[in-house]
Amino acid sequence: MTTRSFDDYSTLAARQIAAQVLAGERSAHEMAQAALEAVARLDGTVRAFTELWPRHAAACATQVDRRVRAGERLPLAGVPLAVKATEGLNAYQTVRLVAAGCIPIGATATPGRGTSWQTWGDTDRGPTLNPHNPRWSPGGSSAGSAAAVACGMVPLATGSDGAGSVRIPAAWCAVIGLKLTNGLVPARDRAGLNVAGPLARNAADAAAYLDAIAATSTLRGLAPPLRPLRAAWSATLGFAETTRQIADVTHAFVNQLADADALAPDDVALRLADPAPCWAALRGKGGDTHSASAARTALLRALDDVFDKYDVLATPTTPNPPHGHQGPGHAMSVALTWAFNITGHPAISIPAGWTVKGEPVGLQLVCRPGRESDLLAVAVSAEALCVGAPPHGNGLRLSERTGRE
Q: Is 84 annotated in the active site?
């Protein structure tokens, strides 16, 4: 076996790592060690991890190397994986990913107890910092997972999304975050609103995740759309207080996707009811369950009308840019995401660009249940556009990550 330098580790995608391990160019053990070294170098600044599992990672890597030598074609062989702390090693998605060859290296930060806002991460060293600017929150609740992927500590991380907890940190850390169709895999809560989803740097890795945990074959046919997908564009869904800068950046990116023949967008006057009371009642946080059921039915009917005419619904992922570590204030970062936890539609956040202050902006795409492949196809087209670096270089870039603040 030829062992090469690990200087390129942080730039490798999950599928690239798996290909090298399957080809015998690198071992799973070497990749796990490279990931732990990246964490040691970078996490003093980012604080993405709350716990590391070097012994468990070594044991998993040994097993993967043994299976590969025996001829198994593990789709994610040797891929270092960050695991959302509220899920752990026994969660459904973790178990499925390990079976596909992933190596869990540690637990990632989620919000601390005793807070009414969830768009941040907490560690015993302080809050998780956004890799693009330490003054900003990385979003949440899958905060550490998004931050770890964004700065190259791991190529893939698990998240869970009950109101936007995969999509919001994906948007604010400028990575991909996919919320699966409700019911595709076991829910994380009794209400069935909280579902699994990956944080990844590209569409192929997100597709490989989907195939591993849901027994689909999305990766095999992954490509840009064969025809422009009809897209209904709404900056507010009829109720959200979306800032002008977020709406402008996202709408401009939708137009770029139209120029690339990925989308055929129309501005629509969509007016959904604010889902806040319905979501709270369904989660047992107050309110009338009968009224919540009626509100859910109304949301489903409104979206049925949209998807009778369009393939996807496009919105900003969040109505506001990343807030600071003091909290969101009056901003409702979940305003544009949590309706789709109620209705069960799959949704993705794709990096869409940057505000003039260098704040990351995400584009959310929503589609019919079970059509995650449409979302990932647009994500492939989006990658070809390359939104580029932020206008202000305040964060940790791949070429200059030192682990120092």
A: yes
Residues 104, 98 contacting (CB under 8 angstroms): yes
The per-residue pLDDT for range 44-73, each reduced to its tens digit, is 999 999 999 999 999 999 999 999 999 999
Of 10, 27, 84, 142, the active-site residue reads 84
Whether the pTM exceeds 0.90: the reply is yes
Active-site choice (10, 27, 137, 141): 141
141 is catalytic: yes
- Which of 160, 165, 349, 381 does the annotation list as catalytic? 165
d(CA 175, CA 146): 7
| Cα–Cα distance, 390 to 279 (Å, whole number) | 34
Residue 301 near residue 265 (C-beta atoms within 8 A):
no
**pLDDT digit string, tens, across residues 254-289:** 999 999 999 999 999 999 999 999 999 999 887 788
- Residue owning tokens 């202050």: 357
Query: What's the length of the chain?
Result: 405
Least Cα distance to 161 among 112, 106, 99, 93 occurs for 93
Residues 6+ apart with CB under 8 A from 169: 119, 138, 139, 140, 141, 142, 143, 145, 146, 147, 159, 177, 199
Q: What DSSP letter does each residue of 228-275 carry, written as one string?
A: PEEEEE-SSTTT----HHHHHHHHHHHHHHHHTTSEEEEE----PPP-
Determine contact, residues 263/257, Cβ cutoff 8 Å.
Answer: yes
Is residue 165 part of the annotated active site? The answer reads: yes
